[in-house]
């Protein structure tokens, strides 16, 4: 039987220790660390993400229980008071930078979404991460709520969040969304919360296509009507010019309006896009596939620790969220070891029970059919 290091060790292989230490020196605050390092912090916090640890005491106890298996990771157990201090005081920017360095490696993975067109497809959305107003007063959103906002640009071909930003809960979704530099030729799907006519012009000028919804009471002029196939649910396909004073002042380009009625639910939708080459049915299907980003948020909230926090400062919250995103990236990076059809969400659930098992990731994620031992009859009768 071949020897394997722990699944945790194999999962962390894409993280270059040399690169990590360089970032740790760059993002350091205060005196030299003595009792623990940033690497010890990273190992402890990423272990808590993968194994579902709920508190600092829980993290410390589990690290101590696995002390012998931490040796090959170059880490040691960390006291809960030390971990708390590092989370509060040492800059979370270390993990933000590490996330994007890892992302550059993940971009080399094969990308293949379900549509025939070759353009990269993204979904853009933001989700609030709720916090207790009593424990996190700095994150107050309204008089009775507190949260931070996670904005994501999800690549549908790899199911990897290629664009990520964390902001205050009261900040408008557009603020971070406009900063994402989507590649030329890509298609971005987003809801009505991102409708901004000046941004529409900017995306069009850069050669980036988008698919969104028409806002209620939008003022526009129909320039051209295209034939439609109503058997596919398409009710209209028009070239329009947004003609309100607000839209004209911001240079809104000519756009395409697609009316679509879902044959299953009977609901009517109006889509807005700057892509004039794809069929109207495909435009509707692209917006429907935007649901993938909602599934992404559901997966990380259910399987990673971004709802129960082990610190109260803003820096501690950002540290925990960025390490959660790194963890998701590492699991997505290991998807080549998984059985075909396995999602990152399913892999995270399996890892919880096998994190310190000495098995290859291939054995864990693609165990193959169960082996049945040949049963010998309890009694042989000779005739």
Describe the structure.
This protein has 383 residues and is α+β, with helices and mostly antiparallel strands. The chain has a domain at 7-102 and 311-365. It has 15 helices and nine strands. Helix 9 links the parallel strand 4 (187-189) and strand 5. The protein is globular and about 70 Å long.
Major sheet attributes? 9 strands, mixed
- Strand content is 15-25%
- What overall geometry do the principal axes of the alpha carbons give? globular
What's the end-to-end separation, in Å? Answer: 43 Å
Mean pLDDT: 89
Radius of gyration: 25 Å
Number of helices: 15
- SSE series: HHHHHHHEEEHEHEEEHEEHHHHH
Helix content: 25-40%
Brief sketch in words of this structure:
This protein is α+β, with helices and mostly antiparallel strands and 383 residues long. The protein has 15 helices and 9 strands. It starts with 6 loop residues before the first helix and ends in an 18-residue tail after the last helix.
Give the arrangement of secondary structure elements.
Layout (H helix, E strand, L loop, with lengths): L6 H5 L5 H10 L11 H14 L4 H10 L1 H4 L9 H10 L3 H14 L14 E11 L14 E10 L4 E9 L4 H5 L9 E3 L7 H10 L2 E5 L6 E6 L8 E9 L2 H5 L4 E8 L6 E6 L6 H9 L2 H13 L10 H20 L10 H11 L6 H5 L18
Parallel strand pairs: 1-4, 4-5
Antiparallel strand pairs: 1-2, 2-3, 5-9, 6-7, 7-8, 8-9
């Amino acid at each position: 039987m071949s020897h394997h290091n722990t699944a945790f060790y194999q999962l962390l292989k894409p993280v270059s220790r040399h690169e990590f230490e360089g970032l740790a020196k760059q993002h350091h605050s205060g005196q030299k660390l003595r009792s623990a390092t940033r690497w010890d912090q990273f190992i402890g916090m990423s272990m808590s993400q993968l194994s579902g640890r709920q508190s600092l005491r829980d993290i410390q106890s589990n690290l101590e229980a696995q002390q012998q298996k931490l040796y090959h990771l170059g880490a040691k157990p960390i006291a809960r008071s030390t971990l708390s201090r590092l989370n509060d005081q040492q800059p979370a920017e270390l993990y933000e930078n590490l996330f994007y360095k890892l992302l550059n490696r993940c971009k080399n993975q094969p990308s293949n979404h379900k549509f025939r067109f070759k353009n990269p497809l993204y979904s853009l959305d933001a989700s609030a991460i709720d916090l207790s107003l009593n424990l996190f007063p700095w994150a107050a959103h309204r008089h009775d709520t507190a949260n931070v906002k996670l904005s994501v640009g999800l690549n549908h071909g790899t199911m990897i969040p290629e664009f990520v930003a964390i902001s205050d809960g009261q900040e408008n979704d557009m603020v971070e969304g406009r900063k994402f530099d989507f590649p030329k030729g890509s298609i971005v799907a987003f809801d009505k919360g991102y409708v901004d006519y000046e941004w529409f012009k900017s995306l069009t000028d850069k050669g980036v296509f988008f698919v969104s919804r028409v806002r209620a009471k939008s003022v526009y002029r129909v320039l051209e009507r295209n034939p439609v196939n109503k058997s596919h649910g398409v009710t209209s396909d028009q070239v329009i010019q947004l003609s309100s004073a607000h839209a004209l002042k911001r240079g809104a380009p000519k756009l395409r309006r697609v009316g679509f009625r879902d044959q299953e639910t009977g609901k009517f939708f109006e889509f807005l896009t700057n892509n004039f080459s794809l069929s109207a049915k495909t435009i509707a299907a692209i917006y429907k596939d935007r649901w993938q980003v909602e599934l992404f948020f559901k997966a990380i909230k259910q399987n990673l620790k971004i709802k129960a926090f082990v610190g109260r400062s803003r820096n501690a919250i950002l540290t925990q969220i960025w390490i959660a995103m790194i963890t998701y990236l590492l699991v997505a990076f290991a998807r080549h070891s998984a059985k075909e059809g396995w999602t990152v969400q399913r892999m995270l659930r399996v890892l919880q029970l096998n994190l310190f098992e000495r098995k290859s990731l291939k054995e864990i994620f693609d165990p193959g059919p169960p082996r049945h031992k040949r049963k010998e009859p309890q009694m042989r009768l000779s005739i």
